[in-house]
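We modelled the chain as a single entity of 171 amino acids. Its sequence is:
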Amino acid sequence: MSGISEERVEKTYARLDASAEKFGYHLSPDTEFVKELVRGLLDNEERYGYWACPCRLADGNKEDDMDIICPCDYRDPDLNDYGACFCALYVTAEVKSGEKELTSIPDRRPPFSERKEKKSQAKDEATADTPSGLAFPVWRCKVCGYLAAREEPPAVCPICKVPKERFERFM
């Protein structure tokens, strides 16, 4: 049993839910399931000093775990393809409303050796291809100008809430 107090779980759950909704995301409608995930996030915060995804094995090295610090790098692609992220903390509006049923979600996180190699290659390519040295393309919201450096644009603009189709590749 976790040493995390119920009050802390409740406060964190409320903060996480408000933040998700503010930025165009949704938490799973299964409140008790989400609170168990929150307990896992808080346990990992005590253990490692950061919110490593409770559904994956963290390495305990923040630099190596950056891709799985919640919300993880795989959340948006998982939401786009499956309607939920790997641990089902975040879901789409269709899943939240019951219009779409959850299915099994494969883990996108590559093995450690592949992550290290990809990180090294991305760094080399970024410094060779772009003056800014960014490892990812930059996406710009055509409505409000919000910029996001990632493989794909966000599912929803966190500022003006338009869908990803309103983003353009900026750099």
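As a brief sanity check on the tokenised model: The beta strands are 26-27, 90-91, 138-141, 147-149, 167-169. The helical segments are 6-22, 31-48, 62-65, 75-82, 93-97, 112-129.
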